[in-house]
Specification:
Elements (H helix, E strand, L loop, with lengths): L2 H14 L4 E4 L1 H7 L8 E4 L3 H7 L3 E5 L4 E8 L5 E8 L1 E3 L11 E3 L2 H6 L9 E3 L4 E3 L4 H7 L1 E2 L5 H7 L2 H12 L3 E2 L1 H10 L8 H13 L3 H10 L3 H4 L1 H6 L11 H11 L5 H8 L5 H10 L4 H12 L12 H8 L4 H14 L5 H12 L2 H4 L7 H6 L6 H15 L6 H15 L3
Parallel strand pairs: 2-5, 10-11
Antiparallel strand pairs: 1-2, 1-8, 3-4, 4-5, 6-7, 8-9
Helix pairs in contact: 6-8, 7-9, 7-10, 10-13, 13-18, 14-16, 15-16, 17-22, 18-19, 22-23
The structure holds adenosine-5'-triphosphate and magnesium ion.
Amino acid sequence: MTEAQFAYEVVHRLRDAGYQALFAGGCVRDMLLGLEPHDFDVATDARPEEVQRLFRRTLAVGASFGVIEVLGPRGDDGKPIRVQVSTFRAEGPYSDGRHPDSVVFTTAEGDASRRDFTINGLFYDPIAAQVIDYVGGRRDLEERVLRAIGNPQERFTEDKLRMLRAIRFAARFELTIEAETFAAIREMAPQISVVSAERIAEELRRMLTDAHRARAMTLMWDAGLAHHILPELAALHDLPDASAGGTLWDHLMRVLDLLRDPSFPLAFGALLHHLQSNEADAICRRLRLSNDERHRITWLVQNHEYLRDAASLRVSKLKTILSHSGIRDLLELHRADAEAVGRSTEHVAFCERMLEQWSEAELNPPPLITGNDLIRMGLKPGPRFRALLEKVREAQLEGELKTHAEATQLVRRLLKGEQPA
Ligand code: ATP
Ligand code: MG
């Protein structure tokens, strides 16, 4: 059974029990756009307790807001299909700029009007195969307009995250943001600071992994949101791009467009690649990204020019970077960066050839000597220690050393060389 079929069954069961039940929100929008919805939400006048009574397996994910998850048979991924069933609700005042203080249960029309944008405020009756539109969402979808439901200023005052959602939906579905909605975002952009770093990061993640990532970032800039979320970029926005004309920002947008199906760290690294790596690191910390993502992003920024002349790097240096777990991301960044300014991508092709040609054992052989070996030779751990190990590693990757004995010899020679005459 597909998720759509199960969602239909859920609606049917609620109807048979005498309740109203409709598909709601994103799934209706996606269907009208001819896209496959990635999850189905059902809205109903049944109360949460009644929904729980009607279905065998449910999870009270947000019962106080009227949200119950109904579990169905296993889907293709082996996990139970889940459909969210929400009681029609209106939201009380928002005192924190992000969450309603309370909800009250209401009608379908009332429920439509608490939603954020007209395109997200549609219902669909799957049994009558009919769209139910209280907010003019259908027309906006046809005309490709993103419009807040009700007074945009009020809606963004209630929940500031909606400003980022507006940008994300407008970019993803290639919509124009309606003038008053856009003016309200521009005016209220500084207030984005009340939204938690995690939520901001999540929106950025979704914008940047979508194919319309450059458009999303351009809208973020035009709306004045980028200035508050990524002020470091504002500083270089208008700087000229020495290699291709235009501004650095134009260059960044071209690079974003040229990335093929990037991970979030790659896309974000590309957006930040003209900053210092310590600035990139600080941004990742501010957005509370995971350590893994922060390290990957910072590493990409730091090395975004490293492979430009890959063929003339020392073999040891080339092998070291090619065996880094982020190398595919780094090559993709180099490719997009070069294409964005019309430079050759031969350096990327060269690295790809070397990755094919070198076996794992050639690229990243087990070390010939370890710290323990040095300790056994009577050395004490410290900076000199690290430097010795690096020298040996370098010689090994260059193919100058093949055995443990040769490595030990080199250490002895290096130590002698270090003695003051
Ligand atoms: P996506 O495909 O990104 O999941 P979606 O429209 O399904 O898009 P969700 O965040 O899953 O978005 O939310 C489901 C529905 O809930 C939305 O379509 C909208 O009607 C409503 N909604 C979600 N977040 C908000 C919000 N912050 N303010 C008002 N309504 C919201
Ligand atoms: Mg959704």
